[in-house]
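User: Good morning. I'm curious how adenosine monophosphate would be positioned relative to this chain. Could you predict the structure with it bound?
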Amino acid sequence: MAEEFRIVLFGPPGAGKGTQAQLLAEQLGIPHISSGDLFRHHLRAETPLGLRAADYMRQGLLVPDDLTIDIILERVMAINSEEGFMLDGFPRNRHQAEVLDDALERRSRALDKVVCIDVPEGELLRRLAGRFSCRECQAPHSIPQDASAEVADASPFPQCDHCGGELYQREDDRPEAIRKRIEVYQAETLPVLGYYRDRRILAEVPGTDSVEGVNQKVLTVLGR
Ligand code: AMP
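Assistant: Good morning! Here's the predicted structure, ligand included:
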């Protein structure tokens, strides 16, 4: 039976949040809300929001709060109160964290846990450079760095292990944008950890283990 877990999965780009969030959402029977996936969906559909967010995303910058907060809160608030949720990629600055708390509080809800998956910078750079995503289901795939240049130019494209969709390298996983995204994480997103630490709902998990190993550690800090 699904349990009422309200969780934020936190961590730098390339820490494996997307992979873990997908897995955990299935295991816990709760919806997975990824702000990055939502923006990429709008980008592909060329909606007004997608077009306004595009430049920020390409450069590895945060999309401004006035474009971000409403679409995420709308999703979160649409979930009925017996259900939990797994937020991935939101909040990414202090203001987003405060607005999320206020909105949940108004519904007499609160976050249960913020789980931060931590990976050293050198490892993040290596992983992001070899990360390819599925155009259909968004599932990330790891392709060794020496092969990734070939894959980026390959035609036809290699296929997704899960749904057979076409794999591509996200524009913001290219080297120019990667460093910027890590810088933005350190300057704007990392301070949010202190906010949750003060609220005593933060758990930190090393993300250097295998996917299964990290998953086990996250389940343990969630009391599962
Ligand atoms: P992600 O897939 O989570 O790495 O997100 C991809 C990009 O979407 C980020 O680099 C940002 O440009 C944008 N984005 C995702 N979530 C947020 C957020 N909470 N606040 C601002 N921008 C975001």
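The chain has a mean pLDDT of 90. Residues 10 and 118 are 9 Å apart (CA to CA).
Let me know if you'd like a different ligand tried.
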